[in-house]
C-alpha cells in the first residue's frame, strides 16, 4: 500500500483537533506512504470549524448541519482520492501513533481494525455490559471472533466501502456495519490490540438508544447476508417442540389424541426454515 486517505469526522471537538492532526502528520512522516487528510466538520456548534480552517495541508468538508458520524464518513469516503481509507476520531481517544501497525498489515488483509484490547483501555462502566452483549451476539451470528465490533480506528479498502455503501447508516453504526459486512462476505479482517483513552470533551453517544440501534444493525446485516443463520435454528426449534409436544399428547394423555397445537408448531417451524432457505438462495444468486 502506498496511498491512503485519512478521514476525520469532527463534531464539537475544538479542544483536541489541532493536536490530533499534528500527531497524524508526525506519524505519517515516518512511513513511506502518500496520504491526504480529509476532515469532515459535521455542523459543529463550537469553534471546530474555525480551528479546521487554520490547519494547513488538509482538506475540510463542512456539513451545513449535523448529519451524523456515519454520514460524515460517507462524505469523506466519496471525496477520497486514494484506494485505502483510514478513519479515526479527533477527540483524543485513539492512539494515532499505532497507525503504522495497521498499515504494515494492509498487504495481507482487506481491513485492519485497531481493537481496544490493549493495556490502557478506558471504557465507561455504563457501556461495558452493552458492549459485551453486542459483541457476543455478533460472534454468535457470524461464527467469527470479534475482539472489537465498532472500533473507530481502522484501515480498509475504499472499494469495499463502496460495495456496501448503501448499507451504511448515518449515525454511529457505520463501524459495526462494515465489520459485519466484511466478516459475512469472506473479506479478511485483522484485529490489532490498541489502547483507548478518555475522551476530551463531551461524548455524543446515548448508551440506551445506541445499544438498541446497534442490535438492529447486527440483525439487519446478518439477515441481509446470512439469512439462513437467522431463520434456520428458530424454525427447527419450533418444529422440534411441535414433535415433542405431539409425542407427549399421543403417549402420555388420555384419550391419546394428537391436538392441533403441536401440528401448528411443527408446520410453522418448517415454514420459517424454508423461508430461510429461499432467502439464502436469493442472496447467493446476487453475489
Write the layout of secondary structure elements.
Blueprint: E1 3-10, H1 17-28, E2 34-41, H2 48-54, E3 59-62, H3 69-79, E4 84-87, H4 99-103, E5 111-115, H5 128-142, E6 154-157, H6 158-163, H7 174-183, E7 189-193, H8 207-225, H9 227-252, H10 260-285
Parallel strand pairs: 1-2, 1-4, 2-3, 5-7
Antiparallel strand pairs: 4-6, 5-6
Helix pairs in contact: 5-8, 7-8, 8-9, 9-10
Offer a few descriptive terms.
single chain; Spore Coat Polysaccharide Biosynthesis Protein SpsA, Chain A; seven-stranded mixed β-sheet; 10 helices; 48% helix
User: Which class do the helix and strand fractions yield?
Assistant: alpha/beta
Reading off the top of the CATH hierarchy, the class of the largest domain is best stated as: Alpha Beta
Could you list the spans in which at least 5 consecutive residues all have pLDDT below 50? none
Radius of gyration, in Å, reads: 23 Å
Please name the CATH architecture of the largest domain. Answer: Alpha-Beta Complex
Strand content: 5-15%
Summarize the helix and strand pattern as letters. EHEHEHEHEHEHHEHHH
Overall number of structural domains: 2
Q: Could you explain how this protein is built, in words?
A:
The chain is of the alpha/beta class and 287 residues long. The protein folds into two domains: 223 residues, Spore Coat Polysaccharide Biosynthesis Protein SpsA, Chain A; 59 residues. Helix content is 48%, strand content 13%. The protein has ten helices and seven strands. Strand 1, helix 1 and strand 2 form a beta-alpha-beta unit. Helix 9 packs antiparallel against helix 10. The chain is elongated. The model has no long low-confidence stretch (mean pLDDT 87).
Amino acid at each position: 500500500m502506498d496511498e491512503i486517505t485519512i478521514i476525520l469526522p469532527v463534531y464539537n471537538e475544538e479542544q483536541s483537533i489541532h493536536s490530533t492532526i499534528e500527531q497524524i502528520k508526525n506519524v505519517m512522516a515516518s512511513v513511506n506512504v502518500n496520504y491526504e487528510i480529509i476532515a469532515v466538520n459535521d455542523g459543529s456548534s463550537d469553534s471546530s470549524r474555525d480551528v479546521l480552517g487554520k490547519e494547513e495541508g488538509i482538506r475540510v468538508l463542512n456539513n451545513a448541519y449535523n448529519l451524523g458520524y456515519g454520514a460524515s464518513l460517507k462524505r469523506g469516503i466519496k471525496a477520497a482520492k486514494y484506494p485505502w481509507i483510514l478513519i479515526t476520531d479527533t477527540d483524543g481517544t485513539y492512539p494515532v501513533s499505532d497507525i503504522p501497525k495497521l498499515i504494515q498489515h494492509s498487504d495481507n488483509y482487506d481491513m485492519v481494525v485497531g481493537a481496544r484490547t490493549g493495556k490502557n483501555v478506558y471504557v465507561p462502566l455504563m457501556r461495558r455490559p452493552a458492549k459485551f452483549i453486542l459483541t457476543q451476539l455478533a460472534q454468535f451470528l457470524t461464527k467469527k471472533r470479534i475482539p472489537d465490533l465498532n472500533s473507530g480506528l481502522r484501515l480498509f479498502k475504499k472499494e469495499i466501502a463502496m460495495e456496501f455503501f448503501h448499507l451504511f447508516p448515518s449515525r454511529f453504526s457505520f463501524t459495526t456495519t462494515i465489520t459485519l459486512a466484511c466478516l459475512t462476505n469472506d473479506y479478511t479482517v485483522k484485529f490489532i490490540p490498541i489502547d483507548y483513552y478518555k475522551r476530551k470533551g463531551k461524548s455524543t453517544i446515548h448508551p440506551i438508544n445506541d445499544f438498541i440501534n446497534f442490535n438492529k444493525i447486527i440483525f439487519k446485516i446478518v439477515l441481509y447476508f446470512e439469512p439462513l443463520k437467522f431463520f434456520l435454528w428458530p424454525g427447527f426449534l419450533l418444529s422440534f417442540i411441535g414433535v415433542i409436544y405431539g409425542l407427549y399428547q399421543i403417549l402420555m394423555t388420555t384419550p391419546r389424541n394428537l391436538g392441533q397445537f403441536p401440528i401448528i408448531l411443527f408446520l410453522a417451524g418448517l415454514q420459517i426454515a424454508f423461508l430461510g432457505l429461499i432467502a439464502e438462495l436469493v442472496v447467493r444468486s446476487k453475489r
